[in-house]
Every structure is written in C-alpha cells, then in structure tokens.
Amino acid sequence: MTSNEAGTHGAVLADPPPPGEAPLVELRGAGKSYGNIRALHGVDLAVHPAKVTCVLGDNGAGKSTLIKIVSGLHQHTEGEFLVDGQPVRFSTPREALDRGIATVYQDLATVPLMPVWRNFFLGSEMTKGPWPVRRLDIARMKATADRELRNMGIVLDDLEQPIGTLSGGQRQCVAIARAVYFGARVLILDEPTAALGVKQSGVVLKYVAAARDRGLGVIFITHNPHHAYMVGDHFSVLRLGTLELSAPRSEVGLEELTNHMAGGAELAALKHELAQVRGVDTGGLPGGDDLTAPAGD
Ligand SMILES: Nc1ncnc2c1ncn2[C@@H]1O[C@H](COP(=O)(O)OP(=O)(O)OP(=O)(O)O)[C@@H](O)[C@H]1O
Ligand SMILES: [Mg+2]
C-alpha cells in the first residue's frame, strides 16, 4: 500500500479531474444474484472526488450487497462496474484497496487492547533496519499517527491508550483517518453512525466531511436520512434491490428523502396506525396527511 508520504496519490487528491471526466467509481445497471435470490438489480451509481454519495435503504434493500461489489468482496452478476472509467471485476478486497477503494466496516477490524497508534498501522507497520534485524519503527509510527489524526482534526489525549477504550465514534474516526493516510481515493462507510448516539454521530459526520474536503469520494451507507442529508451531495435510495431514487442534493429535500426512505405509503399507513395510539403525537412525522389514506382520519 502506498502512503500519502510517498506522494503517489497526492497529485490525484490535490488535482481532481474536471467535471465531465470519469467518476472514481461507477456502476451501470449493476446487479447481483445469490443463486436464485436477486439481491441487487439495475443499479446506477457514480462516485466523484470530493463528493459524498449517500446510499440509503431499509433492511434487506441491498446496501451491503452494493458495497461488497465495490469493495471487492463479491462480484457483480449483471451490468458494469468501472473504476476511473475502466471496467473492473475484483476478486479480492485487496485488489479494490490497490485501486484506492477503502472500506470502513461497522465492526471495525481493530485489536481493542492494542494502543491507538498500533491499530492505526495494523497490517502495514513501519519498520527500520536491514533484514534480519528489521524491527518496528515505533517512534515514527507514533509520530505519524499523531500527525495524521491531528490533520483530520482528531485530537486524542494519548495514543498509547488501548483503542478499545475509545468511544465507537472515535474508533470510526481513527479508521477514517487511517484510510485517508494510506492513500484511499474512495472511502466506503457502512452505516458508521448506526450504533451511535446523536453527539457521537455528529463527530463521525464531521470526519466524513473532512475526508470529502481532502478530496476523497465517499460512499456513505445509512438508514438515517437526517445523517445523510447533513453531508450528502447525492442520494441513492435502494428498495428491494433496485434504485428507487437517485438525485443530487439540489433536486431532493430532506422530507422527500425521508419519505422515500420509509416508503411514503407505508409511512403514511404507520402514521395512521400510530395516530390511533393514545399519547403518540404523529403531528411532526413526515408523510403528509394527503397520504394518510382512508377517510375518517
Ligand atoms: N450471501 C447471501 N446469500 C443469499 N442472499 C443474500 C446474501 N447476502 C444478502 N442476501 C440477500 O440479499 C438481500 C439484500 O441484502 P443486503 O445485506 O445487501 O441488504 P442491506 O440493505 O445491507 O440490509 P441491512 O440494512 O439489513 O444491512 C436480502 O434479501 C438478503 O437476504
Ligand atoms: Mg447491510
């Protein structure tokens, strides 16, 4: 893996291609079947530098299947998958990583009892000295992790503390900074805020924005239209494996997004049901009254 220090990706990050050039990652009519189960079908998606593409959808909508294709875990069974305009078919996540596509999974692959700096370099440790007396370059790893985290605006008191003692949000942030440092051009975040409270989610969203500002194309998977709308430039809503909505921020508002997410009609039905329950105030819920079907409501 190349680091930013080596400058391999520096030029790419500092100098994004002008509009109209090939997206970093693109899916055209892509789909995936697991045997008889068609998990994903006819999906178009484009990821551009310095933009956040949000992929929303309910449980089983196909979000994970989509990112598994892009991250090299699974192969698509229909349509096209392009990186920098070239059709690709990755056999392993390593191949995706080599093209600068990094994925931060929700169950982060960290070693809880190891210090933060050690986790930052896990699997890509810096070494010094010639073989066979090669050893870990601890001082350089600590200094680099410290600098990189600060560059992303992440300030931790002590990088010696076991990563397991950090909050879930902080761990996500370290993982994001790590991906940025190791030269990611495309960062995939699989529901990074799903298990977090409001404040912690805010912190993670801040670093999603920081990664975007560093020039990365971000694919942000979430259930939460509010989180998506805080950072998103483009919104793709999956429903039963197909794209229900694909729209730039300028063409979709938060309420419409929420409606799509919940499935407007279903949400309206739910609102109608909730309205029958004493003590539940449905007034502020999206899904307008016009949708609240039967008369007599
Ligand atoms: N390995 C697999 N084998 C068979 N079916 C699968 C496999 N992986 C996913 N599916 C099916 O594909 C569909 C989409 O699943 P996927 O995990 O992509 O949804 P998701 O949007 O990520 O859902 P969630 O929000 O619950 O994570 C589901 O119906 C699921 O049961
Ligand atoms: Mg999933």
TrEMBL record:
<feature type="region of interest" description="Disordered">
    <location>
        <begin position="1"/>
        <end position="21"/>
    </location>
</feature>
<dbReference type="InterPro" id="IPR017871">
    <property type="entry name" value="ABC_transporter-like_CS"/>
</dbReference>
<dbReference type="InterPro" id="IPR003593">
    <property type="entry name" value="AAA+_ATPase"/>
</dbReference>
<dbReference type="GO" id="GO:0005524">
    <property type="term" value="F:ATP binding"/>
</dbReference>
<feature type="domain" description="ABC transporter">
    <location>
        <begin position="25"/>
        <end position="265"/>
    </location>
</feature>
<dbReference type="Pfam" id="PF00005">
    <property type="entry name" value="ABC_tran"/>
</dbReference>
<dbReference type="InterPro" id="IPR027417">
    <property type="entry name" value="P-loop_NTPase"/>
</dbReference>
<dbReference type="InterPro" id="IPR003439">
    <property type="entry name" value="ABC_transporter-like_ATP-bd"/>
</dbReference>
<protein>
    <submittedName>
        <fullName>Sugar ABC transporter ATP-binding protein</fullName>
    </submittedName>
</protein>
<keyword id="KW-0067">ATP-binding</keyword>
<keyword id="KW-0547">Nucleotide-binding</keyword>
<dbReference type="InterPro" id="IPR050107">
    <property type="entry name" value="ABC_carbohydrate_import_ATPase"/>
</dbReference>
<dbReference type="GO" id="GO:0016887">
    <property type="term" value="F:ATP hydrolysis activity"/>
</dbReference>
